[in-house]
Write a structure and sequence with these properties.
The protein has 386 residues and is of the alpha/beta class. Helix 12 (314-323) crosses helix 14 (371-385). Helix 5 (88-96) links the parallel strand 2 and strand 3 (100-104). The strands form three sheets. The protein has a seven-stranded mixed β-sheet, sandwiched between helices. A three-stranded antiparallel β-sheet has the order 7-6-11, with no helix packed on it. A three-stranded antiparallel β-sheet has the order 10-12-13. It has two domains: 18-258, 3-Layer(aba) Sandwich (Aspartate Aminotransferase, domain 2), CATH 3.40.640; 261-385, Aspartate Aminotransferase, domain 1, CATH 3.90.1150.10. The two termini are 23 Å apart. It is 38% helix and 14% strand. It is globular and about 75 Å long. The longest helix has 19 residues, at 261-279. The structure holds pyridoxal-5'-phosphate.
Length: 386
């Protein structure tokens, strides 16, 4: 077996070092295994990093999306605009609160919501727009915020891919006009807590609801109570909530990981540049578009497009890379093409997302990768395409 075959490169991998282990060990030994001081410390650190006014840590990115829609009090029959291309959790969270996702096609260059199509999809039942920052590139949030403002809609940003990204000098989490931003700390994301997520908002009233929602809907602050205090045991449930708490030791890992986020982002950017050099002359391989001015991607994914006849050979390419010890993935089947969401509409309904799905391939990208690894992926791709 070649040394390459032994050294498998997955498409994503977390970076966990001695500092992270020490932080988790200290939290585990502190006696506060679940809600303890690290939860507030992690929330405060993310507020400082992003410039967000309020942060609520929850148990996953999916829980963060659920909490975001729940605190908007959406009702059955109301609609939320969702991009056709995202992970299923983006649409599922809309269903969790009884509302309907209305899918809208993406822009071919940015792979994010196409704002012109968003405007056309708004009906009297629309309550919110969900922008997903696909691959780490922030959506056109200025334009979407204008639309949301004009139509009196909420703007929610699914930033599972884009923690650390910047638009017009604002970090994701504090972009003007966005009402709620959700993060994921799943192991392939920019930083990890194992599973985990967070909701950021500039609105104190929404923040209060989020804090209750993750803790069964129980009143957290004295002023949220509607009954006289009976004693130190007093527990008062004012909304319907869930147990979506993130543990103290996971938050300790989050604090330790956050201290490395900028380094991780720089490394991802360097690797992307290297991919650009290695693959620029590969016929039939379209590289990701350049970032729009004033926007810095978090480069969660490096997605190439196999165009024309090469798209038909994608499976062969994937298998060749696998033989060379290189993992790839396709992110994602367009959500309206999932059996649960299938509306029976014409296959040409989301032409940009559908074409993307035929052509896309995510290559390995994670901070522990070396330039030699990128070169190895490049060589294997050239061989596969030859
Ligand atoms: C765009 C997007 N939104 C939401 C999620 C859900 O995050 P989690 O896995 O932390 O629940 C993911 C996870 O991959 C995602 O890619």
């Amino acid at each position: 077996m070649s040394p390459d075959a032994l050294d498998f490169l997955p498409y994503g991998r977390p970076w966990i070092d001695a500092d992270d282990l020490r932080a988790v060990e200290a939290a585990l030994k502190s006696g506060m295994i679940t809600t303890g001081p690290q939860v507030k410390a992690f929330e405060a650190a993310v507020e400082r990093y992003t410039g967000a006014a309020f942060a609520t840590a929850v148990s996953s990115g999916t829980a963060a999306l659920h909490a975001a829609f729940a605190c908007l009090n959406l009702k059955a029959g109301e609609e939320v605009i969702v991009p056709a291309l995202s992970f299923v959790a983006s649409a599922n969270a809309v269903r969790y609160v009884g509302a309907m996702p209305i899918f809208v096609d993406i822009d071919d260059k940015t792979l994010n919501l196409n704002p012109a199509l968003v405007e056309k999809a708004i009906t009297p039942r629309t309550r919110a727009i969900l922008a997903v920052d696909f691959t780490g590139l922030p959506a056109d949030l200025a334009r979407l915020a204008d639309i949301a403002h004009d139509q009196k809609l909420y703007l929610v940003e699914d930033a599972a891919h884009s923690f650390g990204a910047v638009q017009c000098d604002h970090k994701v989490g504090a972009i003007p006009g966005v009402d709620l931003t959700t993060l994921s700390f799943h192991p392939v994301k920019a930083i990890t807590t194992g599973e985990g997520g967070m909701v950021l908002t500039p609105h104190e009233n929404l923040h209060r609801k989020l804090q209750r929602f993750r803790h069964h809907g129980l009143a957290v602050q004295a002023e949220e109570r509607t009954m006289p205090l009976e004693g130190p045991w007093h527990q008062e449930m004012v909304d319907l909530g869930f147990n979506y708490r993130l543990t103290d030791f996971q938050c300790a890992l989050g604090v330790s990981q956050l201290a490395k986020l900028d380094r991780f982002l720089d490394k991802r950017r360097d690797l992307v540049e290297r991919y650009g050099q290695v693959l620029k002359d590969l016929a039939g391989c379209r590289l990701p578009s350049r970032e729009p001015p004033d926007t810095r991607s978090a480069w969660h994914l490096f997605v190439i497009r196999l165009e024309g006849a090469l798209a038909e050979r994608r499976r062969e390419v994937v298998e060749h890379l696998k033989k060379r010890g290189i993992g790839t993935q396709v992110h994602y089947r367009p959500i309206p093409r999932q059996p649960y969401y299938h509306t029976g509409g014409a296959p040409q309904e989301f032409p940009v997302a559908n074409r993307y799905y035929r052509e896309a391939l995510s290559l390995p990208l994670f901070p522990a990768m070396r330039f030699e690894d990128v070169d190895r992926v490049g060589r294997a791709l050239w061989e596969a395409v030859a």
